[in-house]
Amino acid sequence: MDFETAAKLSGARFVLLKGAVARIHRALAQFMLDTHTEKNGLTEVNSPVLVRDEAMFGTNQLPKFEEDSYRTTNGWWLIPTSEVSLTNVAAGEILDESALPIRMTAHTLCFRSEAGSAGKDTAGMLRQHQFEKVEMVSITHPDQSDAEQQRMLKCAEGILEALKIPYRTVVLCTGDMGFGARRTFDIEAWLPGQNTYREISSVSTTGDFQARRMNARFRPAGGKPEFVHTLNGSGLAVGRCLIAVLENGQQEDGSVDLPAALAPYLGGKTRLTAEGVLA
Questions:
Q1: Is the distance from CB of 225 to CB of 212 less than 8 angstroms?
Q2: Rounded distance, CA 50 to CA 41, Å?
Q3: Nearest to 191 by CA among 125, 116, 275, 266
Q4: Is the separation of the CB atoms in 14 and 6 below 8 Å?
Q5: Considering 127, 182, 219, 271, which one is annotated as catalytic?
Q6: 183-191 and 196-205: which strand pairing?
Q7: Options 69, 202, 204, 234, the catalytic residue
Q8: Is 157 a catalytic residue?
Q9: In what order do the strands lie in the sheet with 70-71?
Q10: Model pTM?
């Protein structure tokens, strides 16, 4: 992890990964996508990272979080999460009831100015202006949204279990939930370097809050259109997962034992030597 070169290139809150660590980072994202598509039944989407005002409003990023987001000179917004792109596929649509639930996943770059996080996690790669995340989004029937949230929670937890990363799951109180969320579970991974648990995923149901903003509806058999429910969750934050893998697998000699689940993506290698070489 080269923070000095990244700072020379871009300033604070950036990191440059290279060599074996960059490969492990890529392997984590690929493992997450493969698990979500092949095991969990989500549809992979390659989505835009530049979106219009309407998309940011529909997923409750605007106007509340305008200062935390990046905007281009011609009016596009850089997504803070692919929840924005994925959820808005239903904007302005009347879906067939039989098409629900729609379950999607995407691996994208995400961009956040962190204007509201001044002084927090200024060192390391826990809180970056540019980072990668594998996102899960479900668009579902209102009667199924609670069960769908539990399903998504298990999908995210399953990634950590496969990677042998200790974690805990907490339900957030109203004051800690994001704007627009009806219920949120945070999954926190154990980071020995900080001797604490840190958030690695949030799984939220917004009920029909976002659907009303983006006018996303479905038509019940023989009935009038109703608003869908939307859910989102990290599955997972790739950079934070990399930190958890490296810290939890570190040995006394400085090497790192890597999760067996990553071996197929690393040419069968299961260890990162103290010299930074896969073995």
A1: no
A2: 27
A3: 125
A4: yes
A5: 127
A6: antiparallel
A7: 202
A8: no
A9: 50-51, 77-78, 70-71
A10: 0.94
pLDDT at 117 over 60: no
Question: From CA 28, how far away is CA 48, in angstroms rounded?
Answer: 21
Cα 266 from Cα 142, distance rounded (Å): 41
- Residue 117 annotated in active site: no
- The Cα–Cα gap between 119 and 17 comes to 23
Predicted local confidence at residue 136, as pLDDT: 98
Pairing of strands 94-96, 102-111: unpaired
d(CA 55, CA 87) in angstroms, rounded, equals 9
Q: Name the residue type at position 254.
A: G
Distance CA 110, CA 128 (A): 9
Mean pLDDT of 134-142: 98
Give yes or no for a contact between 244 and 191, defined as CB atoms under 8 angstroms apart: yes
**Non-local CB neighbours of 256 within 8 Å, separated by 6+ positions:** 245, 246, 249, 250, 271, 272
Is 26's pLDDT higher than 70? yes
Q: Are 88 and 59 in contact (CB under 8 A)?
A: yes
Q: Are 162 and 244 in contact (CB under 8 A)?
A: no
240 catalytic, yes or no?
A: yes
Among residues 44, 93, 114, 199, the one annotated as catalytic is 199
Structure tokens at 81: 């999460």
Residues 6+ apart with CB under 8 A from 67: 113, 115, 116
| CA 129 – CA 111 distance, rounded (Å) | 5
Catalytic residue among 13, 23, 112, 213: 112
Instruction: List the domains of the chain with CATH numbers.
Output: 17-116+124-272 (3.30.930.10)
